[in-house]
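Box S2. Input/output pair 1.
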Amino acid sequence: MDIDDKNKDINRLFNSEESVNTRKQFLDHIEKWLSHHTNQNDDDLTGLAVLLADGVIDFTQIDNDDLQTYPGIRDSLNRAFNFASKQFEMYDQRLDTLHSKFSKDFEDLDLQIVTDKTAFRGYLRSLTYAEEYYFISRKLKKIHDSVGT
């Protein structure tokens, strides 16, 4: 960066050529990284959705022009959001099915034990995943809505 005392124009650091180039490189890497992870298996996509929901990168701070230049960012965020939402719906439906299976056990539970422990563990697992995917999808929805996907 050239600092010239004779130059009357003040070059802003945020708009400097170096800053613009670094931002472009970063967004290019992010676009490729997101695209790679959204085209993998469900476990990788789940990991990506969790990372995005953690807010490691604040995608809401990327301006619209940059999002237009790097459309893979929006596309990948959209895929992650849709995946998390579908996972929540799947586990929620599974809970509805399992809940009806255990409703009699719940009614008769006074001090009795649930009769099918393996199925009940599956119910508890689905309950946990449904809740986690719900929170992940809500966080991703905020990102999704703010970047206009």
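Box S3. Input/output pair 2.
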Amino acid sequence: MYRIFTWATIFFVAVGCNLSSLEDTVVVPDVDDEFYLDIWEALTPQGRFLEFHLRTIANEPCLHTSIDYEFQQTNRELAISINEIVREEGCEAGEAPATATIQSYSPLPGGYYPLFVDLREKVSSDGQVVVTSEAYTINLEDGGGILLLRPELLRIPDESIWGYLSFDDEALETVAETFVADLQSISKIRPLREGYYGYFTVNNKGALRFPNNIAPNDARTFSYRYDGEREALLNLLENYRSAYGEALKIKIFNTLGEEL
């Protein structure tokens, strides 16, 4: 079914551009996508929360521009209403997309969740999120001004640790190998399936790859199941960090959302 509407010119003011200025005379299929929508699982000591990461496709002329929204989580229905794009007072010049992070009120049990996204109630898209122990899958109908970045987010298994080592001195290659062997000796090997996990991606060889802003391209990565004593893991890290300092950078993350 078609809904009739028209994009009017968006008037920018000091605090933003209000999407409520949209008029109403163009058919939905003719509307270009205006926002990207991605999903993420926030790992915390209180549990796992689904996050929707929203950003404009076009850059804004100010840095740190945000998207004002309303979010509702009612029973098993999830609804996002995009209200306006908001610039901070005293615009910091530069081009970047406007962004928003929307977190579920509580961890989502497995099952089916209807999803509704609208742009100031002028145009909307219906879809769904399906939650299993292994993944979140999401779909959204076309033509509502929202473009999904990916249909699936894999979930990192409980009791997982992962991370990377990086170093510039080739003489530390053997030290890095020894650290990984020591870490493996107090952990358990648990291969991860290929795909996108948010915090990292696993390739078809089972190797982890981090975003460039998290780890260098040539970093040595690892992941294990760790159900041992926290103190033993911290002691291992401290031994290597004390011995090699900044020359050997070691980062370990866990499913409580901690960086060790």
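Caption for Box S3: The CA atoms of residues 49 and 107 lie 5 Å apart. The mean pLDDT is 87.
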